[in-house]
Write a structure and sequence with these properties.
- The chain has eleven helices and five strands, in the order H-H-H-H-H-H-H-H-E-H-E-E-H-H-E-E.
- It is an alpha+beta fold.
- The longest helix has 96 residues.
- It is rod-shaped.
- The two termini are 61 Å apart.
Length: 381
């Protein structure tokens, strides 16, 4: 847009400089060719078109040396020459400008053009050159500013991504510490309070037997034992609930994947889409994933492993796929993994689920597919 505005001003000034000349075919041709040449410079996109535009500008200046009516519109060509001048072609541009200056002097001596027209042409040529150089510098600054803006935006996006990763990692560490503390508390209650209550229940039962010939005392000890057993049952229920809350499926799978990742190993992608899974399902899937990754590392030259754990309305699903072994060698790999596959199958079927493992039908590699149904009360959750 800046170039079009500049050229509009230069063109108006060139027309004003040519007003004192007789309107003939040469002047009209000079005007039309000047407009065409300067328009070609604006539509030039590739390198070949730009070279043609530069050549047209140089030819126009040379034509102005031999055809005086071309002189008033020469500033348009000089504007385009100054636009793309570089160190390699600066001497060519200076040479063409010098020839044009000598042409102005020659026309002044021969009175081919009026002094007013030549003076305006000279002033416009200098002004057009300076205007083109100023606009080129402005464009370079704008380009540099856009480049700087893009770099800053890119860095901002990178920092935002890193901050988000750090926040996620921090949340993961906090959750991991919370779950570990819950598990520790559950163990402490089970090992200490549970042991003492069990001991108290046994002592009450022993005292009841000792005082069996005293019905009143025996009944009191029986009540004490019943109360202690109820307290022990409440403690066990609380410990189991606390331990179940301490088992998080996504955390367990993340631990296993992190432990399996290595610099020379395959790329492992983990995707967990479950809100909450029971402790038995979480422990089962963790064991299956551990065995599946172990088999992949030992029996397959995989480059990528994908782990997806999803929760559906009526069942939980675990899918582990890799690209390490094609269908031709599938039977050999299945035999090598026989005991591990049997162990995974037993774990899944113990929860009423289904388990399959084998080569992928659509592509090379291996797939482990396991589903475990939800309890009846969780299906609508």
């Amino acid at each position: 847009m800046n170039r079009l505005f500049d050229k509009s001003i230069v063109l108006v000034c060139c027309i004003a400089a040519a007003l004192g000349l007789a309107v003939d075919a040469r002047l009209v041709a000079a005007f039309c060719l000047g407009v065409i040449a300067t328009s070609l410079a604006e539509v030039a996109q590739d390198e070949r078109t730009r070279r043609a535009s530069d050549a047209a500008s140089y030819v126009y200046i040379i034509a102005a040396v031999f055809v005086p009516p071309f002189v008033p519109f020469a500033p348009l060509a000089l504007y385009d020459i100054a636009r793309r001048v570089c160190r390699k072609r600066v001497w060519v541009a200076l040479g063409v400008c010098s020839v044009f200056a000598f042409a102005l002097v020659a026309n002044l001596r021969t009175n081919t053009l009026t002094a007013r027209t030549l003076l305006l042409a000279a002033i416009l040529s200098i002004a057009a050159t300076l205007l083109s150089l100023r606009t080129a510098q402005l464009e370079r600054e704008q380009q540099r500013m856009r480049r700087t803006r893009d770099e800053l935006q890119e860095r901002a996006l990178v920092l935002e991504t890193r901050n988000r990763d750090l926040a996620d990692r921090q949340d993961y560490e906090v959750e991991l510490a919370t779950l570990a503390e819950r598990a520790r508390i559950a163990r402490e209650i089970h090992d200490n309070v549970g042991y003492q209550l069990t001991r108290a229940s046994l002592q009450a039962e022993a005292l009841r037997v000792v005082h069996a010939d005293e019905p009143g005392v025996a009944a009191d000890f029986a009540d004490v034992k019943h109360t202690v057993d109820e307290a022990l049952q409440l403690v066990r229920t609380s410990v189991h609930a606390l331990n179940d809350n301490a088992v998080d499926l996504s955390v367990q799978l993340e631990r296993i994947v992190e432990g399996a990742r290595s610099d020379g190993g395959p790329q492992i992608e983990l995707e967990v889409m479950t809100e909450h899974a029971p402790a038995n399902v979480a422990n089962c899937f963790a064991a299956v994933l551990r065995e599946a990754l172990s088999n992949t590392m030992r029996h397959a030259c995989a480059h990528a492993v994908t782990v997806r754990c999803m929760e559906h309305p009526s069942f939980y699903q675990l899918i582990v796929t890799d690209d390490g072994m094609g269908r031709v060698q599938a039977s050999g790999r299945g035999a090598a993994e026989g005991m591990g596959l049997a162990s995974m199958r037993e774990r899944i079927e113990a929860l009423g689920g289904t388990f399959t493992a084998g080569p992928r039908a659509s592509a090379g590699g291996w797939r482990v597919f396991a589903t475990v149904p939800k309890p009846q009360g969780d299906e609508g959750r």
